[in-house]
Amino acid sequence: MRFSNVFIPRRAYWSTPFCKWQGSFADLHPIRFAADVAVKGLARRGIAPEVLDQVVLGWTIPSKQVFYGAPYLAALVGAPGVTGAMVSQACATSAAAVAHAAGSVACGGSEATLVVLADKCSNGPHVVYPNPAGPGGKPDAEDWVWDSFNCDPWAKNAMVETAENVARSEQISREEQEAMTLLRTEQYRQAVEDGFHARFFVAPYEVNPTGRKVVRVVEHDEGVFPTTKEGLAKLRPVLRDGTVTFGTQTHPADGNAGLVVCTKDRAAALSGGEAPVEVVSYATARVEKGMMAKAVVPAARRALEAAGIGVKDLAAVKTHNPFAVNDVYFSREMEIAPEAFNRTGSSLVYGHPQGPTGARLLMEGIEEAIDRGGGYVLFAGCAAGDTAAALVVKV
To answer: What are phi and psi of 308, to 5 degrees?
Structure first.
């Protein structure tokens, strides 16, 4: 899918740090939390809520009052006359939400859309479905987060099994996975040391669940574990006779992110004299059952083809990599050196709150391209159901 006349105002994007499962953000309502962060993010960039004519809310984990999600969010950010859609596509939610907003702008349905991605893996809902035919009327039940991670109803496998399947079929060793993890950890560590993520973080953030007392202040990602070659080698595989350990996969997290998608004229007006970022193309892909990590490659290739460019034209590449297997496979198939992508961090290291992950990676890619003097940025990431999505933007 190729877009025309779709832009992001320069640095009109933001993210919270990501906090580990059951950590500092565990008690916050995801929509109200994301709205508060969006208010701060818009204010820091001098964008008044009055310029917004649409919102898109991306989420994957339901929370109380999510039925009213998009209009509720709009009202909380100061745009009570605005509404929009809610988008949910597992780990591809960020890309799908941006594409939804971009399609609306390209077709003349909006001049300025606020896209907010809000999810919380902590305290995931325990859902009960009435089943009058159950024994004694016993209802069916589902732990939304845990059961979704552990059972694809079509492929009949857990997500970690898809990583093992690709590792086995493509002969990706445990040693390769651990080497990739060490590289990604060092890339992230260097970016933190350079203050890279502070460019778009809404931080420090005061956590105030009741509205009466600040209980903690979050300044950085929480849940990033010290990682060494020796430490990784000591870990047992998650699955018996497997190669993936808890050190070479991501962890559930909480957080949110947001950005503004506009027409070229509106984006230029909101960019403070700098050039806005063009949203160029979007693509999805699905591969055979139980091979989720493979889907990133065809999605990326389709997005690049729609943009009319190749890998050599890219200034920055970011991938959602829930498993180190993903990046080993992507590197091989796309012929990109491991050190040449995810230069400033990735979800393998700092965690995965589902919906917001792709948006944070996209803004990291934009900032990397800015540092390199501009150019094309590719974001690509896998998602549940052996699928993937990809976006190309131009700085």
So the answer is: 75, 30
CATH label of the domain that carries residue 174: 3.40.47.10
- In single-letter form, the type of residue at position 358 comes to G
Q: How many CA atoms lie within 13 A of 324 on its CB side?
A: 24
Domain count, the chain: 2
Tokens of 86: 């809610």
pLDDT by residue (tens digit) across 34-61? 999 999 999 999 999 999 999 999 999 9
| 300 occurs within a structural domain | yes
Supply the range of the domain harboring residue 312: 159-195+278-394
State how far the Cα of 175 lies from the Cα of 22, in Å rounded to an integer: 30
Q: Would 58 be classed as within a structural domain? A: yes
The span from the CA of 88 to the CA of 281, in Å, is 19
From 203, 146, 198, select the one nearest 21 (Cα to Cα): 146
Regarding whether 332 and 260 lie in a shared domain, the answer is: no
Cis peptide leading into 204, omega within 30 of 0? yes
Q: How far apart are CA 140 and CA 137, in angstroms?
A: 9
Asked whether 284 and 389 are in contact (CB, 8 A), the reply is yes
Helix (H) or strand (E) holding 351: none
CA dihedral 43, 49, 51, 52 (to 10 degrees): 120
* pLDDT score for 186: 98
